[in-house]
Write a structure and sequence with these properties.
The complex is a heterodimer. Chain A is α/β, with parallel strands linked by helices. In chain A, helix 9 links the parallel strand 8 and strand 9. In chain A, helix 1 packs across helix 11. Chain A starts with a helix and ends in a 14-residue tail after the last strand. The N terminus of chain A is likely disordered. Chain B has two domains: 87 residues, no CATH class; 308 residues, ABC transporter involved in vitamin B12 uptake, BtuC (Orthogonal Bundle), CATH 1.10.3470. Chain B is globular, with a radius of gyration of 24 Å. The relative contact order of chain B is 0.14. In chain B, helix 6 packs antiparallel against helix 13 and helix 7 packs across helix 13. The chains are: A alpha/beta, B mainly alpha. The interface between A and B is large, with 42 and 47 residues.
Chain lengths: 412, 412
């Protein structure tokens, strides 16, 4: 009951913000949503994002829409492939006539498609694309809620440095625009901490890891860090466990797919004790908005909890809607101006884009990657500590500021 | 690689002397009015393996090219390649660790057996009907999906081998019905371009099956439980001979084999034995082989080639389904899972010789070994697994250069 009240309250708040001035806009207003819904993309992540974006649209329409118009969500399947990402972005803009685009999971898709949106003046708020170059190009119409790859890599490296007895790390990365730079940055971070590392790269759709796992095993690593999306990560974790170098044998970080608890445990029955990075507020710090969204998400999907990419996808649509309402128009330039000035209280926290046209990276004295970047998506490391556990109940073990439980080190 | 200059020098030596050998040997046999059928290939092998030391006697003596001449020099080529690799990169784990090498060979054999089973289906279809089925990967996917849904959803607790039999039955029936419904126009001249028609119609079936399964079961990855879970056991007490865990067997503390894969390989070998018995000991099998050799002669003896077409297509689909059914316990399974194995099967049947059943199986084993060697031995770990699909293509290119009909193929 409380959850329903909060959801309604949130929707009403949005109503006042979004529906007030019914200015010139073609009804219905269409917003595009990028999600990988087929292999080799991360289907698990894509379906979660689609469900979350639909919840956002339902809430917006329940509150009267935007600028007096109902809002339509047009979800397209990127398949996690750059060429497909370009094609669907073109389709969204030229055929579906969307006024803005949210969602997005794979960095390679984001990098391949963002120029099309920028060149045609359609604002994009990327939800889960981590590559630094997405924002480092300082394009006017491109925004991002997801963390920067370099920031996540720093978390990985610092976490590995905090694991007792770790001197030799193997990084298994997908050979994409996400995996390659992220693994290289992680390697640099580990090197700075005095830890040696070897990077193994694999294709995004790899099923059989037997050859590479034997090789990793021969390397005798103290820890394995995965930088992989999609089902390949499930295959790798389970096959590593079967070969005696799984999460139960030595510290291993699984990628974000592991947050999808039901799919994870079905595909990786031997995956207990895996560490995962989680983006967004730790459960203990959930706001009312976060709790309300999670309740709606759980009801819609039947899952135990909302994953971080679902939260990002939801916020990407909501922040676009608020920006259109504040701009009083669906014109791309007006929406960008509104996004640059926005303060949106979402499920990830209070979202702003402080490095923008009026406060450039040069003026702020920060690197270009912070352009149009949500600066504070909390990044934590959580660990499954019981077979079949929900990722929401998995304790935060790093960084210490968010820590809710002690890590279990399988090698000790 | 420690001494890469040495390695590439040896490769250059082999290529140059191979090319010289191919040219001069054929010339020598031709000038003496001898059979030149195999002279070029033997010359290439002798030149690459021994350089001028073997080529000069071969040129002057021009011995009769027996089977020994056709095969032995290739082992010399392989030996020289391995020796050059070992001397160039003594620190490589493939060179320095016998246990690693043995494990890789074991894994290559196991995966190769399963690849061979799948490719056998494609070769069977090609040898009887003369078409390449582009829906082969989807039958592989369906085989796995049937086993998953039967063992995990519909009849949990039932013996998984019953599910495997159900998968075989379903894929056989779907394949046979499809052949009756869509491939008969090829035989009676109802289509102007039968080859193009067969490509399009089997492609259509592939898309239909892929999206049918996605529509019915969703796009999330699934995985069946291991058919057999081993108890933890070791013999003798120090485990020096055998150690078993739930999903792994370790032999002589050297060979590590995943039990789901081993189980899959055992079923594949049994299926192969059953297929050989069927083809050589039953009337239906002999009729199939007769049609493969000469359709018209077979028809004269009372064999209905149309029935044989249906049987061949159904059997081919069933073999793909069986390969999927036994591997769903080892890998995560998606509606798009069949794409890469199907591509690999195409490579295998061309490598083994289009339409050759022994060639398909030997090609499968060869492919498994090549992939295991590539993933395990390529010195650069950032490329070893990334280029997995490329290794088979390189070998295929070399084989086709020397023997355009493939390893076991016959001239039309």
């Amino acid at each position: 009951m409380k959850t329903r009240f909060l959801t309604t309250a949130a929707a009403l708040t949005m109503t006042t913000a979004l529906a007030a001035p019914a200015l010139a806009a073609d009804c219905p207003i269409r917003i595009g949503g990028l999600a990988p819904l087929s292999a080799p993309g991360s289907v698990t992540g894509g379906e979660a994002m689609r469900a979350a974006m639909r919840i956002a649209i339902d809430e917006i329409n329940a509150g009267g829409g935007v600028l007096g118009c109902p809002v339509e969500l047009v979800v397209v399947d990127t398949e996690g492939l750059p060429e497909r990402g370009r094609a669907v972005m073109e389709r969204l803009i030229t055929q579906d006539r969307v006024v803005a685009v949210g969602g997005g999971y794979h960095s390679s898709v984001g990098l391949a498609s963002k120029n099309i949106a920028n060149d045609t003046g359609i604002p994009v708020v990327f939800a889960e694309t981590w590559n630094d170059r997405i924002t480092a190009d300082q394009q006017r119409f491109i925004f991002r809620l997801a963390p920067l790859s370099s920031e996540v890599a720093a978390i990985y490296a610092n976490f590995a440095a905090s694991v007792p007895g770790v001197q030799n790390v193997v990084i298994v990365a997908e050979n994409t625009d996400y995996g390659l730079p992220a693994s290289d940055m992680t390697r640099q971070g580990l090197e700075a901490a005095g830890i040696t590392s070897t990077i193994y790269t694999v294709d995004i759709g790899t099923q059989d890891f037997s050859g590479i796992i034997q090789r990793i095993r021969a390397d005798k690593p103290d820890m394995i860090i995965q930088v992989m999306t999609g089902e390949a990560a499930y295959n790798f974790t389970q096959q590593a466990a079967e070969a005696g170098i799984g999460p139960g044998d030595l510290p291993m970080t699984c990628d974000q797919n592991a947050l999808e608890s039901a799919a994870y445990w079905q595909n990786v029955p031997d995956g207990n004790l895996c560490f995962m990075n989680r983006v967004g507020l730790p459960t203990a710090l959930y706001t009312e908005r976060t709790t309300a969204f999670e309740a709606a998400y759980v009801a819609a999907t039947g899952k135990d909890a909302a994953e971080s990419y679902a939260m990002e996808a939801y916020d990407s649509i909501m922040v676009i809607a608020q920006a259109i309402a504040e701009a009083g128009s669906t014109d791309g330039n007006a929406v960008v101006d509104a996004l640059e000035a926005i303060t949106y209280h979402g499920v990830l926290g209070t979202i702003t884009f402080p490095i923008n046209t009026n406060n450039t990276p040069e003026q702020a004295g920060v690197e270009a990657k912070w352009w149009h970047q949500f600066p504070d998506p909390a990044i934590t490391v959580v660990q499954y500590q019981e077979q079949g556990q929900s990722s929401t109940n998995a304790p935060v073990v790093y960084p210490p500021v968010y820590q809710t439980g002690d890590a279990i080190w399988p090698h000790q | 690689m420690e001494h890469s200059l040495f390695f590439w020098s040896v490769m250059g030596w082999m290529v140059v002397w191979g090319a010289i050998g191919g040219t001069v040997t054929r010339h020598a046999y031709f000038m003496r009015d001898l059979d030149v059928t195999d002279a070029r290939r033997v010359g290439v092998a002798v030149g690459a393996a021994t350089g001028p030391f073997g080529l000069i006697p071969l040129y002057f003596k021009t011995p009769k090219l027996t089977r020994l001449w056709k095969v032995a020099p290739w082992f010399g080529v392989l030996g020289l390649f391995v020796l050059a690799f070992a001397l160039s990169d003594p620190g490589n784990v493939c060179v320095s660790s016998g246990s690693f090498l043995t494990s890789q060979i074991a894994n290559g054999l196991i995966m190769g057996t399963i690849y061979g089973l799948m490719a056998l289906g494609l070769a069977l279809i090609f040898s009887i009907i003369g078409i390449v089925s582009f829906s082969h990967g989807e039958f592989y996917m369906i085989g796995g999906m049937v086993v998953y849904y039967v063992t995990a959803v519909l009849l949990p607790g039932w013996n998984p081998l019953l599910a495997v039999l159900m998968a075989c039955a379903l894929t056989f029936c779907v394949g046979a019905l499809f052949e009756r419904a869509f491939l008969t126009p090829i035989y009676d001249g109802r289509v102007e371009r039968p080859i193009e028609y067969s490509i399009l119609v089997t492609f259509g079936l592939a898309f239909f099956l892929q999206y049918l399964v996605q529509g019915l079961g969703g796009a999330n990855p699934v995985k069946a439980d291991a058919f057999i879970e081993l108890p933890r056991w070791r013999w003798p007490a120090d485990g020096s001979v055998i150690v078993t865990s739930r999903a792994n067997i370790t032999l002589f503390d050297t060979i590590f084999v995943s039990t789901p894969r081993l189980m899959a390989a055992v079923v594949s070998i049994l299926a192969l034995a059953a297929l050989i018995w069927f083809l050589f000991r039953t009337w239906w099998g002999k009729a199939l082989r007769a049609v493969a050799q000469d359709r018209q002669a077979a028809a004269v003896t009372g064999i209905d080639p149309r029935i044989m077409n249906m049987l061949a297509f159904g059997l081919g689909c069933m073999l793909a389904g069986l390969a999927g059914a036994v591997l769903v316990q080892a890998f995560s399974w998606l509606p798009q899972t069949g794409t890469i194995p199907a591509l690999r099967s195409f490579v295998i049947i061309v490598l083994g010789g289009l339409g050759s059943l022994p060639g398909a199986f030997v090609g499968g084993i060869l492919m498994g070994m090549i992939e295991a060697a590539g993933a395990g031995c390529i010195p650069d770990p950032t490329r070893a697994a990334s280029y997995l699909p490329a290794y088979g293509m390189v070998v295929l290119t070399l084989v086709l250069l020397l023997k355009p009909t493939g390893l076991f193929g016959r001239k039309a």
